Amino acid sequence: MDKDALRTIMPPSDESLLKEELSEGIETENTENVSIYSPFRVGAQQMSENEANWQEFLIKVNKSSEKIVDLLVDVETIDFLADLSENFKLTENQSQELSRLVRDILLADIFWGDFLNLVVSRLGVERTTADQIIKSVTEGLLAPIIEDIKKAQKDKFGDKFVKPRPSENIQQGNVVDLRNNNR
């Protein structure tokens, strides 16, 4: 789906229309669950209840790189997240949260460095499981577009991405007591 086509997508007005719109042109075994596993469509019904929120979302998508947009709407993304959810025995709600988190990482709505803690808290899984999920998502889904993701993350969270280097002139044990006026 190209960016011009995204500009014309109107918010879904009801659930039956949403399912029809979501499954249109999608050939995947997970067609009926597109709204769960598609990072682009997860939560679309709720977002579309407020036209401004839906338009804001589409603007973010349109500002993203073509590779990010392709991953957001790709059928293979839906299948990957469905299979991953099945492999980790995630519930429908957990699967939706995972799709939201992937979307939010892709659109730089959340900082990559917070991904692990967000998977733990939103999915309600152990830290080791969250780490495995992130590793699977990164290696199996995000790796081909990691440079685009890094750029989007750096553009949004530049100050968090740049780690300050310690000054070369700082020596261990060199402490000045500013309370003492006598030097």
Features:
mainly alpha; 11 helices
Helix percent reads 55-70%
SSE sequence, one letter per element:
HHHHHHHHHHH
* Strand element count: 0
| Low-pLDDT residue spans | 10-28, 164-170
Count of alpha/pi helices: 11
Note the overall shape. Answer: globular
Give the C-alpha Rg.
21 Å
Amino-to-carboxy terminus distance: 70 Å
The chain-level structural class is mainly alpha
Strand content: under 5%
Mean pLDDT: 80
How many strands, what sense, and barrel or not for the largest sheet? none
What does this structure look like?
This protein is mainly α and 183 residues long. The chain is built from eleven helices and no strands. α9 (115-123) packs across α10.
List the SSEs and their pairings.
Elements: H1 3-7, H2 15-23, H3 34-37, H4 44-48, H5 51-63, H6 66-73, H7 75-87, H8 92-106, H9 115-123, H10 127-142, H11 146-161
Helix pairs in contact: 7-10, 8-9, 9-10
Q: How do you describe this structure in short?
A:
This protein has eleven helices and no strands. It has 183 residues and is mainly α.
